[in-house]
Specification:
Order of helices and strands: EEHEHHEHHEHEEHEEHEHHEHEHHHHH
Helix content: 40-55%
Distance between the termini: 40 Å
Strand order of the largest sheet: 3-4-5-6-8-10-11-12
Oligomer: single chain
Number of strands: 12
Structural class: alpha/beta
Radius of gyration: 24 Å
Length: 452
């Protein structure tokens, strides 16, 4: 295909992107598409480097295994490693490409599913052997480059064995296979020093209630998660366990629909102290929420663990996983992160893929630069908003009636319905104040326009 990267591949370790320079910060006046306009990794924002606020991570799957297919179209992308034939050779070449890619972009973390890094074998034993052969190479590259693992996970949704779910499957042997995959993936994540482990129930849900025992499936989902918690302590894994909410797709009704649903589930089964949430922007869209809403709901319940930074198309009803370029969304996302005091040990993982027509290797760099610059700009604006207390002062003023008098008594639990009935009789209706939404939106816009 025209545009495929053609290189001499006589050795696994030869450079893949040798025609791409290391991406550097050139400032917003630069017209060089292979440069950062806003992401200046070492720039100090609120007392720490920009890179430590953002903790960018590369998604191994969308970046190095996605070939441009969609629900209606065949692959459009040819990567030079795909021509090597042997699946294990391809997998090793991908490792080299991934670490070269991250080094050139200055990305310090990556995330993976097990099937991203190594091919499935005919048996579980063969799959595990394949994984550890590739993990040995990944470990070498991590030591060589200093790049770290943000989180690992297993893919318990793509294979046909998971057509009825994994932890919620109607077949106990499938439940067992999913558990085995999680065990292996957790072992690998611990070995590679992963700072988190993610559980994404890609098919934990149902298509119809006509054949579904929802109570058994939910109970089994909780049993599965409790096993994960037990194994975490058994192997001494000190990272954070994360659950990623996801609505609708691919199952009609997913049990992990949104933040509120997952929090309710965790509390019902006594798991709320063990898990935090990995919030994805495109999943918020599919759930009918804004990205900021999902982040806010997780933050105020002390459950915001990490972020999948992408965006969806509001005109399409599936998970398009586009690179984030919406500066307003990025600003308000970083506002929530800063309000929490940071996202560590989580980070901003670019769970995003280039469009089918962006099939040339350079497009991977353009996409990451766009996403990294967007969140860097969002960080700067969000920090300035908080520093100037633009929204904080308005919110405090709006709720000041709860800081004294009857409002304070409500907060302190000193009154009941009878007391409030008597208060209402004596005081009648109070004068209301404007919410000033349009004014605040205008102010936020002005900060976005002027903050460099």
């Amino acid at each position: 295909m025209k545009g495929a990267l053609l290189l001499n591949i006589s050795t696994i370790d030869e450079a893949v992107f040798k025609d791409i320079p290391k991406i550097t910060y050139e400032g917003e006046g630069s017209t060089n598409p292979l440069s950062f306009k806003y992401y200046n990794a070492e720039e100090m924002i609120g007392g720490k480097p920009m890179k430590d606020h953002l903790r960018f991570a590369m998604s191994y799957w969308h970046t190095f295994t996605f070939k441009g297919m969609d629900p209606f179209g065949l692959p459009t992308m040819e990567r030079e490693w795909d021509s090597l034939g042997d699946p294990m050779t391809i997998a090793k070449r991908r490792v080299v490409a991934a670490f070269e890619f991250m080094q050139k972009l200055g990305i310090e973390y990556f995330c993976f599913h097990d099937v991203d890094i190594a091919p499935d074998g005919e048996t579980l034993e063969e799959t595990e052997r394949n994984l550890y052969e590739i993990v040995n190479l990944i470990e070498e590259k991590m030591k060589e480059t200093g790049i770290k693992l943000l989180w690992g996970t297993t893919n318990a949704f793509s294979h046909q064995r998971f057509m009825h779910g994994a932890a919620t499957s109607c077949h106990a042997n499938v439940f067992a296979r999913a558990a085995a995959q999680v065990k292996i993936a957790m072992d690998i994540t611990k070995r590679l020093g992963g700072e988190n482990y993610v559980l994404w129930g890609g098919r934990e849900g149902y298509e119809t209630l006509l054949n579904t025992d929802t109570k058994l499936e939910l109970d089994n989902f909780a049993r599965f998660l409790k096993m994960v918690v037990d194994y975490k302590y058994e192997i001494g894994f000190t990272g954070q366990l994360l659950i990623e909410p996801k609505p609708k797709e691919p199952t009609k009704h997913q049990y992990d629909f949104d933040t509120a649903t997952v929090l309710g589930f965790l509390r019902h089964y006594g798991l709320e102290k063990e898990f935090k949430l990995n919030i994805e922007a495109n999943h918020a869209t599919l759930a009918g929420h804004t990205f900021q809403h999902e982040l806010n709901m997780a933050r105020i319940h002390n459950a915001l663990g990490s972020i999948d930074a992408n965006q969806g198309d509001l005109l399409l009803g599936w998970d398009t996983d586009q690179f984030p370029t919406n500066i307003y969304d990025a600003t308000m996302a970083m506002y929530e992160v800063l309000k929490q005091g940071g996202i560590a040990p989580g980070g901003l993982n670019f769970d995003a893929k280039v469009r089918r027509a962006s099939f040339e290797p350079e497009d991977l760099f353009f996409a990451y630069i766009a996403g990294m610059d967007t969140f860097a700009k969002g960080l700067r604006v969000a920090h300035k908003l908080l520093e100037d207390r633009v929204l904080e002062d308005v919110i405090e003023k709006r709720y000041e009636s709860y800081t004294s008098g009857i409002g304070q008594e409500i907060i302190d639990g000193k009154v009941g319905l009878s007391d409030l009935y008597q208060y209402a009789l004596e005081h009648g209706d109070s004068k209301l104040s404007s919410g000033r939404q349009e004014m605040l939106e205008s102010i936020v816009n002005s900060y976005i326009f002027r903050t460099k």
